[in-house]
Design goal:
- The chain is mostly helical.
- The chain has one domain.
- The model has no long low-confidence stretch (mean pLDDT 84).
Length: 123
């Protein structure tokens, strides 16, 4: 499979993962386990970090319905782009860029390595 096809497949998978979180079919923690490992794609990385922020803001969303709606619409927008295999716009990717170095992403080190680092950040 070509790199382009594998990236498009990964984006479509991530789109479904985001929808599963929004429809409460799965938790963010479970969703993160389903992210495709070792996909070198800024859009997939951005979606990963967007979900981390969604999880981190859970308490805030519960107290502010407008913010909750905006955050859900934002994730729906990202999922729609990814479902079509499209790039997430550069300005959105740049917003999350500062988190790429300090936050875990899925890698060859395995899901347990990623989860340990994730839980270290959340707790």
């Amino acid at each position: 499979m070509s790199r382009k096809n594998s990236v498009i497949q990964a984006r479509k998978l991530v789109s479904g993962i985001i929808i599963d979180v929004l429809t409460e079919k799965t938790s963010v923690r479970e969703a993160i386990k389903k992210f495709p490992p070792d996909i070198d794609d800024k859009s997939v990385e951005c979606a990963f970090h967007a979900l981390l922020h969604f999880e981190a803001d859970e308490d805030y969303r519960s107290h502010d319905k407008i913010y909750a709606e905006e955050q859900e619409e934002y994730l729906e927008y990202l999922a729609g782009l990814l479902a079509g295999g499209e790039d997430i716009p550069a300005n959105i990717i740049e917003e999350y860029g500062e988190y790429y170095e300090s936050s875990p992403v899925l890698s060859k080190k395995g899901i347990m390595f990623t989860l340990k680092n994730l839980f270290r950040l959340i707790t």
